[in-house]
Specification:
CATH architecture of the largest domain: 3-Layer(aba) Sandwich
Number of strands: 13
Strand content: 25-35%
Bound molecules: acetyl coenzyme *A
Strand order of the largest sheet: 1-7-6-4-5
Distance between the termini: 24 Å
Largest sheet: 5 strands, mixed
Radius of gyration: 19 Å
CATH superfamily of the largest domain: Thiolase/Chalcone synthase
CATH topology of the largest domain: Peroxisomal Thiolase, Chain A, domain 1
Shape: globular
CATH class of the largest domain: Alpha Beta
Order of helices and strands: EEHHEHEHEHEHEEEEHEHHHEE
Number of domains: 2
């Protein structure tokens, strides 16, 4: 008997060149570097250049992931782009990424789960790989969130930034006794009753505009730690592991206080938590793969490590994925 597992073969990230610091932001809206750092842990964010689109960021991250995986685009048969800021209403940004990467086979689709997008996309790609619809996937989280921010609203514009992250995920058939590798389990949740806690006040069908991010920050904060901890516990119980066995925790990079709250509730020491929110703010669907790339490149995440990814965002949506890292 063999078991099909999805193994991560390479990780890549891309942040646009332009850095917007808290101090610069404080010249535009009534805020301070101290307030932002204390409440969120964010020091700066990256902003895409004029004419630089979500698909461009996605392609830069994907190229790095492919190079590190040692895989050419010919070896990919599925692209999923998790984004809430597509280049156009249609076609899917994933098909634009497919074209820009020179891939003329397979299939590509977008996935919309806001900040949870990457975790949702990982679970979706894992399902396609396991049921044989694809063998090697590019899973990308890419956002130009700066384009849907109200730059006069200090309660939201200080929190977000632009960026992209990508992984190459490959289906591998393993002997039953050697299946403790790759994606071990995922759990996804959503609750549409909470849509108005975090949303965009425009859209194709409702207003014909793209709208701006609106958020009840305190309400989001109140729900976040509990929801994220619950879904992590679900993945742990499904896979038979405990939080004490985790080598690394790679959370959605929204806010340091939420990250610390989840770590504390799950009993995960700060030394095992990957934090990058300080340098790129909340990049929505891009944040988890950006943090993952950092910890892989600096040598923290190594082959054999047990790694928990999680995210939560508008909808509400939330989810977690457990991976046994393999080089
Ligand atoms: N600079 C200075 N003051 C500000 C700012 C700012 N940028 N933003 C709000 N304030 C003020 C408010 O107006 C308020 O003033 P008041 O007391 O005179 O009315 C005061 O600060 C406190 O406001 P609160 O909203 O209560 O501040 P809080 O401590 O809750 O911090 C924050 C706000 C950081 C948004 C927090 O609620 C939070 O982190 N929420 C989670 C939101 C989040 O991370 N969203 C990301 C998307 S969801 C996700 O990815 C999980």
């Amino acid at each position: 008997m063999t078991v099909t597992r999805s193994i991560v073969r390479g990780v890549g990230g891309y942040l646009p060149q332009r850095i917007l610091t808290n101090k610069e932001l404080a010249q535009r809206v009534d805020t301070t570097d101290e307030w932002i750092v204390q409440r969120t842990g964010i020091s700066q964010r990256h902003i895409a250049a004029d004419g630089e689109f979500t698909s461009d960021l996605a392609v830069r991250a994907a190229e790095k992931a492919l190079a590190r995986a040692g895989v050419s685009i010919a070896g990919i048969d599925l692209i999923i782009v998790a984004t809430t800021t597509p280049d156009m209403t249609f076609p899917a940004t994933a098909t634009l990424v497919q074209k820009k990467l020179g891939m003329h086979h397979g299939f590509a689709l977008d996935l919309q789960a806001v900040c949870s997008g990457f975790v949702y996309a990982m679970a979706t790609a894992d399902s396609y790989l396991k049921n044989g619809m694809a063998r090697r996937a590019l899973v990308i989280g890419a956002e130009t969130f700066s384009r849907i921010l109200d730059w006069e609203d200090r309660t939201t514009c200080v929190l977000f930034g632009d960026g992209a992250g990508a992984i190459v995920l490959e289906a591998v058939d393993l002997a039953d006794g050697a299946a403790d590798q790759g994606v071990l389990g995922s759990r996804l949740r959503s609750d549409g009753r909470q849509w108005d806690k975090l949303y965009v006040d425009g859209g194709v069908s409702s207003t014909g505009t793209i709208g701006h991010v609106r958020m009840q920050g305190r309400e989001v904060f109140k729900h976040a730690v509990g929801m994220i901890s619950d879904v992590i516990e679900d993945v742990l119980s499904e896979t038979g592991y405990t939080s004490a066995q985790l080598n690394w925790f790679v959370p959605h990079q929204a806010n340091l206080r939420i990250i610390n709250g989840v770590g504390k509730k799950m009993g995960i020491p700060a030394s095992k938590v990957v934090v990058t929110v300080d340098r790129h703010a909340n990049t929505s669907a891009a944040s988890v793969p950006l943090a993952l790339e950092t910890a892989v490149l600096d040598g923290r995440i190594k082959s054999g490590d047990l790694v928990m990814l999680e995210a939560m965002g508008g909808g509400f949506t939330w989810g977690a994925t457990l991976i046994r890292w393999t080089d």
